[in-house]
Design brief:
Number of domains: 2
Distance between the termini: 36 Å
Helix content: 25-40%
Bound molecules: adenosine-5'-diphosphate, magnesium ion
Number of helices: 10
Strand content: 15-25%
CATH superfamily of the largest domain: P-loop containing nucleotide triphosphate hydrolases
Order of helices and strands: EEEHEEHEHHHHEHEHEEHH
């Protein structure tokens, strides 16, 4: 059974059919890239999976369980995580304190968390920081981090929730090309090690064709193609509609 199954999602805004009958599948430990031109419906699809938007039609299944229309908080309890921008109030805290806050929030959110006393140990935060390569920055205020390291901290905060499915909308936006690949290589390694599925939207073709296991192409709200990166790269319809080849 697939970790994530999206079946026939639809969403309109007024007269605009933003997403029309989109179906996707994602396996544990894999990265699925959602690509397409601006306005193709990537974020809308993403927000329906993440509970920010309620679909007009269709279903979202996590491990076979219908999670359609659940709120982000309920989804978080089921293991659906999302990278997010660091809240202003966290900027003055150190990197380690940010992660500790996220671990405590997770512990409070679930009975499982309350029973897991290790959320309260400093070593738990340190271990997460090591996983994203920030162990050397633990005692610096988050506000002093370089942009690429802020992205790593966002990733650590999301991982504190122990997601089985991680949603990342344009995780590498604003990063230099080499940094983008490095971040998504890190995400790929974490996905493999944790058996975590990652759904992400991405503009950088280096990342899409380098790190994604599967690629889904949206054009004008419809799924144009879905498959392995190499097949997508060679698909004439994709080249015509999107890659400009
Ligand atoms: P992408 O992320 O691929 O750039 P979006 O999902 O953001 O595309 O947008 C798809 C279409 O839906 C666009 O035509 C956009 O203008 C429209 N749209 C998205 N969100 C809203 C909204 N909240 N209200 C009205 N129209 C929206
Ligand atoms: Mg978008």
């Amino acid at each position: 059974m697939s970790l994530l199954r999206v079946e026939g999602l639809r969403k309109s805004f007024g007269g605009v059919q933003a997403v029309q009958d989109v179906s996707l599948q994602l396996e544990a430990g894999e990265l699925l890239a959602l690509i397409g031109p601006n306005g193709a419906g990537k974020s809308t699809t993403f927000n329906m999976v993440g509970g920010q938007l309620r679909p007009d039609a269709g279903r979202v299944l996590l491990d076979g369980r219908d999670i359609t229309g659940l709120a982000p908080r309920a989804l978080a309890r089921l293991g659906v995580g999302r990278t997010f921008q660091i809240a202003q109030t966290f900027a003055s805290l150190t990197v380690r304190q940010n992660v500790q806050m996220a671990l405590l929030a997770q512990a409070r959110a679930t009975w499982r968390g309350w029973r897991r006393a290790d959320a309260f140990r400093p070593e738990a935060a340190q271990a997460l920081l090591a996983q994203v390569g920030l162990q050397g920055q633990a005692e610096r205020p988050a506000s002093e981090l370089a942009y690429g390291d802020v992205k790593r901290l966002e990733l650590a905060l999301a991982l504190a929730g122990e997601p089985v499915l991680l949603l990342m909308d344009e995780p590498t936006a604003g990063m230099a090309p080499a940094e983008r690949v490095a971040l998504m290589e890190l995400v790929q390694g974490l996905a493999r090690a944790r058996r975590m599925g990652v759904l992400f939207t991405e503009h950088s073709m280096d990342v899409v064709f380098g790190q994604a296991d599967r690629v889904a192409v949206l054009v004008r709200g419809q799924l144009l193609a879905e498959g392995a990166p190499e097949a997508i790269r060679q698909d004439a319809r994709v080249q015509q509609a999107y890659l400009g080849g």
